[in-house]
Design goal:
Elements: H1 3-6, H2 20-30, E1 34-38, E2 44-49, H3 73-84, H4 88-91, E3 99-100, H5 105-115, E4 119-124, E5 127-133, H6 134-142, H7 153-167, E6 175-180, E7 183-188, H8 192-203, E8 210-213
Parallel strand pairs: 3-4, 7-8
Antiparallel strand pairs: 1-2, 4-5, 6-7
């Protein structure tokens, strides 16, 4: 699936000239944890999130003392602006990671995991068109359909073997698969982790009614 398949059809934004209080109010009203910031031409200029507001003076948090020797004067000045400025443009994060609407969801998930972010603005020709969030990825997981598999035990067996080889690199020497009346039987001398992965692969193939392990210490149990 691609970003355009799951992204929001409408997106709430704020202007860099809006107040921080207004941005916080919109986040509360819309139940979102961050907002894209766009200029009057629709160009993305930043992102303001809950994280940007954690050191606000309104929360009663102390400012960085001028005598703090571990922090440079520039850092102290920036921290003061971040905690006291009233305009969104002075508080927002400017180095925003974005994605194209044609990007795969796997790319989005990787970016979110590597950068510790919950949402990514979606760009088309430099302009903001939407936003994709972790919630959108959860929706994609919840509504995912099994891949189509041809009917019949042999077709199911081939599908399992293909996935074992291509997805996790388990060759037939490690795991052997037979399918009888929709029941997948797994044999071999693979490691415990590989056996578990093989069971998960088999369970995910459409048409499989159950998985029976025949590994040396499995005792013929059904997964």
């Amino acid at each position: 699936m691609k970003v355009k398949d799951v992204m929001a059809t409408t997106v709430v934004t704020v202007s860099p000239d809006n107040s921080v209080r207004r941005a916080a109010g919109i986040m509360l009203d819309k139940h979102v944890s961050g907002l894209p910031v766009v200029d009057d031409k629709g160009m993305l200029v930043g992102l303001i999130s809950e994280g940007d507001l954690l050191r606000r003076s309104e929360l009663g948090l102390p400012t960085i003392a001028a005598s703090e020797h571990l922090v440079s004067s520039e850092e102290r000045a920036n921290a003061y602006v971040k905690s006291h400025a009233w305009k969104v443009g002075d508080v927002m994060s400017r180095n925003v990671i974005t994605v194209d609407e044609e990007a795969d969801l796997s790319h989005v998930a990787t970016l979110m995991a590597e950068n510790g972010v919950k949402r990514l603005p979606v760009i088309r020709n430099g302009k903001l068109v939407s936003i994709v969030s972790r919630a959108d990825l959860l929706h994609a997981i919840a509504t995912a359909r099994f891949d189509d598999t041809a009917a019949g035990d042999e077709a199911i067996r081939r599908s399992i073997v293909t996935r074992l080889n291509e997805d996790i690199g388990l060759k037939s020497a490690n795991v052997t698969v037979t399918v009888v009346d929709g029941l997948a039987h797994l044999w071999g001398t693979a490691s415990a982790a590989s056996r578990k992965a093989a069971c998960v692969v088999a369970e995910g193939v459409r048409g499989v009614k159950g998985v029976i392990e025949h590994f040396p210490d499995a005792g013929g149990r059904s997964a």
